[in-house]
Amino acid sequence: MDRATTRLRALLRDKDFVYMPAVYHPLGGRLVENLGFDAAYVGGYVTGASLAVSEPLLTMDEQLSVAGSVANSISLPVVVDGGAGFGEPLHTMRTVREAVRAGIAGMHIEDQLYPKRAHYHKYVAHAVLTEEFVDKIRYACRARDETDADFVVIARTDTCRSEGLEEAVDRLNRAADVGADMGLLFPRNLSEAREAPKRVRLPLVYVQSRGNRDGRPLIDNDQLREMGWRACIDAQIFLLAALDAAERALIEVRETGAWTGMSDARAVDMRKRIETLIGLDRFYEIEEQTVEGKK
User: Fold this and answer.
1) Is 233 helix (H, G, I), strand (E, B) or coil?
2) HSE on the CB side for 168, CA within 13 Å?
3) Is 268 buried (19+), middle (13-18) or exposed (0-12) by CB count in 10 A?
4) Distance of CA 252 to the CA centre of its chain
């Protein structure tokens, strides 16, 4: 089988739009694959939340461990949130190399300062100077070329929020000049979302940030495709849906002593589906051919 990086390259070449839901464990990755999606994403937000530390406190090892465990449990290519590269250009190069070794197919690297601050979640953009960002992308691309030329480097800028579309476009076009494969920015409104793909010299990735509190638009995939965006990261859909359902179930049990949100038949079906996703039938088969079959 081709490497995950090669599969991602082919996917981006052959499809005009790629949707990537964010997951934070292998079972979620298996579900995404089983439902027929083309790729999966492991974001800093979902990894940080799942570890109850938040994205700014994540280490490289923590983020790549989660993303690598997802990547190695599915055949779909996985893109990871590489934050600010976990340091300066030299550190960013190592982050790229470690991602390749972990079986990850691509990574976005941003122009936030490192270490990141918790105020990032209040939409405060602590952007580094353009030259520092460009250097980081240049050396990330060097690490890509030295390790696996098919690894996808996505340059991400957060400056649209604070400094406007013009600054964000300039940074991504500068990133294109040093070898970035794709770009990622955060348009503040529909007008900027329509304008960005026309002005950036890179294929653009949109971040569907459900529950955001800064008014960034949620745009459906068909509209994004029509606007010229080439991919969409759905950054919180799995985490929000999972925690919401679990919270409602647990509240009902706490308050009534029972859970009526799922019938017994549905629970049996869901458990079987989980066991199918993790490959339990194959485990049974191997044990029956060995230790269980010798009884």
Assistant:
1) strand
2) 26
3) exposed
4) 32
Report the alpha-carbon distance of residue 189 to residue 71 in Å, rounded: 33
Cα separation, 164 vs 157, in Å, equals 11
- DSSP 8-class letter at 18: E
3-class secondary-structure state, position 83: coil
- Structurally, the chain folds into a number of domains equal to 2
Looking at the DSSP assignment, which residues form a beta bridge with residue 25?
A: none
* 268 and 147 co-located in one domain: no
Q: Given this model, what pLDDT does residue 123 score?
A: 86
> Do 41 and 78 form a contact (C-beta atoms < 8 A)?
yes
Cis amide leading into 203 (omega within 30): no
pLDDT of residue 1: 67
The answer to whether residue 38 is domain-embedded is yes
Tell which residue, 84, 127, 128, has the closest CA to residue 108. 84
Backbone angles phi, psi at 291, to 5 degrees: -65, -40
13 and 155 part of one domain: yes
pLDDT of residue 295: 66
- CB atoms inside a 10 Å sphere around CB 108: 26
Rounded to two decimals, the pTM is 0.96
| Distance from the Cα of residue 287 to its chain's centroid | 36
| Amino acid 107: pLDDT | 98
